[in-house]
Amino acid sequence: MGKGMRAGKKPKTRQSGGDMQKQLKQLQAMQAEMEKTQAELAEREITTTAGGGAIEVTVNGNKEITKLVIDKDVVDPDDVEMLQDLVMAAVNEAMRQMEELVDSEMNKITGGFGGMGIPGL
């Protein structure tokens, strides 16, 4: 055992300042790339349909509905529940697809680290 070391203790390792600076620059570059991608994704749109095209929903990357088209033939005052179900199905599918797109694009940048508790990611 080396001088000044106790049993069971590991020697401290220090990271050089240059390594820390390099990692910080890499994180800053990753953050800038993520911000750019998020802005681009906000402009993207996904359109889905339900009921064989009777309902069409378009959402943007901010997960906002930007367009909703309801075929007049599916509007039945005696069956409002069917219309509600079709709208929900189309909206949920559009949101699911947009979430997949956003996750996929962010994972390209972060390599899967985005959901691992790294601040700002």
Spell out the blueprint of helices and strands.
Blueprint: H1 17-43, E1 45-50, E2 55-60, E3 65-70, H2 80-110
Antiparallel strand pairs: 1-2, 2-3
Descriptive account of the structure:
The two termini are 43 Å apart. The protein is an alpha+beta fold. The model has no long low-confidence stretch (mean pLDDT 84). Helix content is 48%, strand content 15%. A hairpin with a 4-residue loop joins strand 1 and strand 2. A 3-stranded antiparallel β-sheet has the order 1-2-3. It is built from 2 helices and 3 strands.
Give short descriptive properties of this protein:
elongated, 48% helix, 15% strand, alpha+beta, single chain
How would you sum up this structure in a few lines?
The protein is α+β, with helices and mostly antiparallel strands and 121 residues long. It has helices at 17-43, 80-110, and strands at 45-50, 55-60, 65-70.
